[in-house]
Write a structure and sequence with these properties.
By secondary structure, the chain is α+β, with helices and mostly antiparallel strands. The protein has nine helices and eleven strands.
Length: about 325
């Protein structure tokens, strides 16, 4: 795979299905959500778009992935029933194949044997930003196929599922796993104090699932703190001002840092005097930074940053083009 007897689809034909899912920002709940703590997350204006095109054929899939600049970083053709274990791109293709095979079994009409399917996937954000390209892909495939997104997640990129919930529903939410059941509460507001914060992309990509696997032996130490972490999460939604929110963010990081024996986000920029909180996997991707005029520009001048409100998905977020 690719199969030399099956020519790769190269034409830009008409699109028969189009969908898009937003990236996400996780305010709190990193690691702890796997122990039953509440996670709070927001959809971003940055999204992943997917187009699906059917042509006469014999059941082959033509996959094309593009980055935010339009560069095609993945292009291959394969049959879902082929073995990709020896393929040089197997780490990329295996989760895609797992989802497509499940679709083939559960909804054969979505993948007819007498049709070839072209998938074109394009993100409007950089992969190293850590906004959730995997969860967005799961949501897109779920919407196209009509398959439960959490079933697809377990087959491809298993995790807590909070990111899939944001991508699939496209809404801000509070997410909690209680006795093995997902509890999702949608949020219709963004706390006002977040206007005093910036999202900074560090340029250091950390794979969330690798980070979870590396530290999961320590997660049991968070279990006695779930109630306190939940109180902090609720407090972040109701905090009256930046000072109150900063105290809560610092307390959250302190608990995780102590129990998981990990360096908090502030250690990445020790000279900065404002509050810093990790967003998602610690040690990379993105951080939440309290804005202090002058000092912020000096410390973070070489990094990409956004006002928190400016990164969020709104009713005016542009659709895929």
């Amino acid at each position: 795979m690719p199969n030399s007897s099956q020519p790769e689809n190269t034409d830009q034909g008409s699109c028969h299905f189009r969908t898009a899912s937003p990236g996400k920002i996780m305010l709190c709940g990193e690691y702890a959500v796997l122990c039953g703590a509440r996670a709070i997350a927001f959809p971003t204006k940055f999204r992943q778009c997917m187009e699906v095109e059917y042509r006469e054929g014999s059941g082959y899939v033509h996959w094309q992935s593009y980055d935010f600049e339009g560069f095609q970083w993945l292009r291959c053709s394969f049959h879902p029933n082929e073995d990709c274990s020896a393929h040089p791109l197997k780490n990329v293709l295996q989760p895609i194949l797992a989802m497509l095979r499940h679709v083939q079994q559960q909804n054969p009409g979505a993948m007819p044997a007498d049709k070839d399917i072209t998938f074109r996937v394009k993100a409007s954000f950089r992969k190293e930003w850590g906004l959730g390209s995997s969860s967005a892909l799961i949501a897109n495939i779920a919407r196209w196929s009509g398959i439960d997104p959490w079933d697809l997640m377990q087959l491809s990129f298993p995790g807590s599922g909070y990111d899939v919930a944001v991508a699939f529903h496209g809404k801000a939410l509070m997410y909690k796993i209680d006795s093995g059941q997902r509890n999702i509460r949608f949020l219709d507001f963004v706390p006002g104090w977040l206007d005093d914060f910036r999202v900074v992309f560090t340029g250091k990509k950390v794979n969330s699932r690798d980070s979870v696997n590396e530290n999961k032996s320590m997660f049991h130490k968070l279990e006695p703190h779930v109630e306190e972490l939940d109180r902090i999460a609720m407090g972040l939604l109701t905090a009256d001002d930046c000072a109150e929110a900063c105290g809560l963010l610092q307390r959250y990081e302190s608990i995780l840092s102590r129990e998981l024996e990990m360096e908090p986000g502030a250690r990445l920029f020790p000279a900065y005097s404002g509050t810093i909180k990790s967003l998602g996997a610690w040690g990379g991707d993105a951080i939440l930074v309290e804005y202090r005029q002058g000092e912020f520009e000096e410390v973070f001048q070489n990094l990409i940053s956004f006002n928190f409100y400016d990164i969020l998905q709104t009713a005016n977020t542009e659709p895929c083009t």
